[in-house]
Specification:
2 copies of one chain form a homodimer.
Chain A: E1 3-8, H1 19-27, E2 30-35, H2 41-54, E3 59-64, H3 74-92, E4 99-104, H4 114-118, E5 126-130, H5 135-142, E6 154-158, H6 159-165, E7 173-177, E8 192-198, E9 206-211, H7 212-230, E10 235-241
Parallel strand pairs in A: 1-4, 1-5, 2-3, 2-4, 6-7
Antiparallel strand pairs in A: 7-10, 8-9, 8-10
């Protein structure tokens, strides 16, 4: 492989794809496509259908996504998992493939491991990134709202950070990603407003918003029910706290 | 106007446009298009050419973007400016237009005023947002790098915040937007790494990266020269500081 193009495809709406993404799919010799296991076929199906619609002649090589082991040190587990994925890519690629494309959910820059996995390949291919719509933009578009207040900062963080450290310092708005545990429950719900979305951009999109005290439990319940019926869930949310200091604008 | 669709068009690469953006341009009766004054014709030209390429039958109504006044209270000036822009939209729109589209640089959620201006319209139209590629994704794609470290938070902030408050609390990575003054110069440059980009996604894209101590002055000089030759500049950057506590991963 001489060249690896990571193509951001957005969050599940096939129309999130950009013209640059389509050009990149068409110029690849082969698209490497992950199978994420039983119950997640619709995720692989979306990727297959994007290739079929926009680059119908392009060959596809599928691989089974390794499962990350539970327990132990988080960072070590993630590193070992990335090593395994790089080996799975190499095993799936025919030696003839010189320019490989990989469709990345959302955008390759945001809480995505693909760039770190690509860095493990030997010899290293030239890596190109085609940006895609992230869950942040899909969330704010669905709620028809800005991410930030005027001239104010926003923190992008993870569920794990929110559980371990509480409200992120330095901003009154925070977007939380990679949260499998509704970690907003660890916050004092008073004066926190939430805009939540699951399956953003997809036909099954679910949205909720309100003061955390009022809608928090409802989100937990809706999330559990949706995950049980779909077999998987992807969700994200934006939180705004009422600034603690009365002088803030 | 019954319906206003805000269409994120990315950062200047015409191929940043999404299929959803194209569908939205085609389904509008009329596209409202800002002229930002002498020397910025290429920005209006990009919008005109997107409409001509993807929705050639759609009517365009142009308006002159009011100029924000300098000095005085920042928040009050911004509010007055948004009022003025809303009036300029209303003056430019023929009464026959029922479904209006507006092409928004980047994404309508991120340091963009369009949603706040739309909220000033009376009667209020139904407002729809089509997400677009932001400067954050264009920056990280150009530098072929992730925005975040594994499981770590990132702050999105403004040049003004960086000047007034120094390094944003709560994260070791920060993206800085809306910075006309290279505000990174206010930071202690030791142990800060910068990835900078201007005209992201455009043919004139300029990238620099390195330790702030080494490349900071070079960025200031390159930015000045580019702005003088183009007549305008849009740039953004990601900063990473070496965590102050030695125990950090």
């Amino acid at each position: 492989m001489d060249r690896l193009t990571l193509i951001g495809i957005g969050t599940g709406n096939p129309d999130h794809v950009t013209l640059a993404g389509i050009v990149a799919m068409r110029s690849a010799d082969l698209i490497l496509l992950p199978r994420k296991g039983p119950g997640k076929d619709d995720l692989a199906d979306l990727r297959r259908s994007l290739v079929a619609s926009h680059a119908p002649g392009t060959e596809i090589a599928e691989f089974d996504m390794p499962v990350r082991s539970e327990g132990g040190d988080y960072r070590q587990k993630v590193d070992a998992w990335h090593d395994e994925i790089a080996r799975a890519w190499e095993a799936a690629l025919p030696s003839s493939a010189s320019h490989v494309g990989l469709l990345v959910w959302g955008d390759p820059s945001l809480y995505d491991s693909t760039l770190r996995i690509a860095a493990r390949l030997e010899p290293a291919p030239e890596t190109v990134v085609v940006p895609g719509i992230t869950a942040l933009q899909a969330l704010t578009a669905a709620h028809v709202m800005p991410l930030n207040d005027i001239n104010a900062p926003v923190v992008i963080t993870t569920g794990r950070q929110l559980r371990d450290r509480g409200w992120p310092e330095g901003a009154d708005r925070a977007v939380v990603m990679l949260d499998g545990e509704c970690s907003f429950r660890k916050l004092d719900p008073e004066d926190v407003y939430i805009w939540w979305g699951a399956y953003l951009g997809m036909p099954g999109q679910i949205l909720r918003h309100g003061w955390l005290e009022k809608v928090g439990d409802e989100i937990v319940t809706a999330r559990e029910a949706a995950r049980a019926s779909h077999g998987w869930i992807m969700d994200t949310y934006l939180l705004r706290r009422t600034p603690p200091a009365p002088s803030s604008a």
